[in-house]
Amino acid sequence: MTGGYAHLVITASPTRLGSYAKLVNGPAWNPRERVKPIAWVTIRGWRMRAVLVSPETNESAFVHHVVLIWAVGRHTYAIGFHDITTVRETLQLDEELAQHIELVRP
Questions:
Q1: Whether the Cβ atoms of residue 61 and residue 18 lie closer than 8 Å to each other
Q2: Which of 26, 75, 92, 94 is most deeply packed, by most CB within 10 A?
Q3: Residue 43 — φ and ψ, nearest 5°?
Q4: How does DSSP classify residue 85?
Q5: In angstroms, rounded to a whole number, what is the distance separating the alpha carbons of residues 42 and 99?
Q6: Where are the domains of the chain?
């Protein structure tokens, strides 16, 4: 990333969620909210869906973010950087962070 700063949002759900929009919008999710799937990636054995969260169809902390979403066990996780350069460059930031995530048991 050149210049600026990277705004990161992280969330997790205590249950598996089948809707990417529901995960990024949280408990206030509305069925009209949508995200744009942009890629599949596999990192550390986790199959992740990359999505773009548009302000036209969402009202969440993830607006203007490229987000990686994946499930492990009974939980669904999401991480995403604010897209301040290009979607491709922002996805690379997400992927780099995901390489270093460690999920721990309580």
A1: no
A2: 94
A3: -135, 125
A4: S
A5: 10
A6: 8-98
